[in-house]
């Protein structure tokens, strides 16, 4: 017999439940730190100082946040359609191939044309690679979870082949393309802000961060202020009711997966055009999978996704600094802390919803 659904106020579901899950995860992480003989308070201080205590730390934090915004939004859009897109890594990989081809083949164009075209190429590559699993589910009944997992491996294999046999840098022992032309890369943030009198250290943070913020606004407008967004949410809530209302679930599934893949392509824009300035193997570095946790913690809402992305950005940058200051707290332990947060935000979501519901009932009874 299934448990009765837990009804919570919207503010509690969107804000309080994620906060409680994160607090519980950090408590468990603190116990792990105590277990190795270190002070959790000192470790937390060092982590926050490394992520937010300097201009360089903040810049690195926002660089990681940029990746997590794109991948979190990609998962969130699919969530609204009732889909679980875990193919962000593969979609970003294909987007990286598309953006590299655009930057290399269209290099004679001026930057004012080349950069937008390369960004559109990344979105198109990701959208195509997201559309195919959506089409397979909508028309063939192939579950999108299985197909996106498989497509991750196909994309990785295709990337290896192309970098080694087709578009690789001649004479290089590393699987990579030639470096892009100067006018084909995104402007670093320290150069972008210098004319305004803001001096920042040179870091990987670039103008893709502004694209990520724009994507947050665009997804909010799409999901909550457009007819297409209403159709996506209706299909996600009840496909039969959507069909009865004249909405085609099959069409919405394909459209939602294409949008999801296009957003995942933002990861390629940030890494390939903004940081590496060439296509490398494994540039996705697991960001696509972390995007699942970002979307879960953010409850699929762009504001929540932005905040959750910032949290993981703090963990990534602060964790790197923490491992330098406290060698006993290795980088792997920081990854474990992130894994605990993912576990608590995802698999134990129902538990924390019950905890919050009980707390609210107790407060109202008093």
From TrEMBL:
Q: Which GO terms describe its molecular function?
A: transmembrane transporter activity
Q: Which InterPro entries match?
A: ABC_transp_permease
Intracellular or extracellular location(s): Cell membrane
Give the bilayer topology: Multi-pass membrane protein
A Pfam match: BPD_transp_2
Q: Does the keyword Lipid metabolism apply?
A: no
Coiled-coil ranges per UniProt = none
User: What is the protein named?
Assistant: Nucleoside ABC transporter membrane protein
């Amino acid at each position: 017999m299934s448990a009765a659904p837990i009804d919570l106020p919207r503010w509690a579901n969107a804000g309080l439940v994620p906060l409680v899950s994160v607090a519980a995860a950090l408590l468990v992480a603190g116990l792990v730190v105590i277990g190795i003989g270190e002070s959790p308070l000192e470790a937390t201080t060092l982590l926050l100082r490394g992520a937010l205590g300097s201009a360089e730390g903040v810049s690195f934090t926002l660089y990681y946040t940029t990746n997590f915004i794109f991948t979190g939004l990609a998962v969130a859009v699919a969530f609204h359609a009732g889909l679980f897109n875990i193919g962000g890594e593969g979609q970003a990989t294909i987007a990286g191939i598309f953006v590299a081809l655009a930057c290399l083949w269209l290099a004679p164009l001026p930057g004012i044309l080349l950069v937008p075209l390369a960004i559109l190429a990344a979105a198109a590559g990701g959208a195509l690679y997201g559309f195919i699993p959506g089409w397979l589910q909508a028309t063939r009944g192939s579950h999108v979870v299985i197909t996106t997992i498989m497509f991750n491996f196909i994309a990785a294999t295709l990337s290896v082949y192309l970098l080694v046999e087709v578009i690789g840098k001649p004479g290089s022992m590393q699987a990579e393309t030639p470096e892009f032309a100067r006018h084909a890369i995104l402007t670093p943030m320290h150069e972008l802000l210098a004319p305004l009198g803001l001096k920042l250290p040179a870091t990987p943070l670039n103008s893709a961060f502004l694209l990520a913020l724009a994507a947050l606004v665009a997804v909010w407008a799409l999901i909550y202020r457009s007819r297409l967004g209403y159709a996506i949410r209706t299909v996600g809530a009840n496909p039969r009711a959507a069909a009865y209302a004249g909405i085609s679930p099959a069409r919405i599934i394909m459209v939602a997966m294409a949008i999801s893949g296009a957003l995942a392509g933002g990861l390629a824009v940030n890494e390939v055009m903004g940081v590496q300035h060439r296509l490398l193997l494994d540039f996705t570095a697991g960001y696509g999978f972390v995007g699942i946790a970002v979307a879960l913690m953010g409850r699929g809402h762009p504001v929540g996704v932005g905040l959750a992305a910032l949290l993981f950005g703090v963990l990534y940058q602060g964790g790197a600094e923490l491992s330098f200051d406290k060698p006993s707290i290795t980088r792997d332990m920081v990854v474990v802390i992130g894994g605990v947060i993912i576990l608590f935000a995802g698999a134990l979501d129902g538990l924390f919803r019950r905890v919050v519901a009980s707390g609210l009932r107790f407060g109202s009874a008093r």
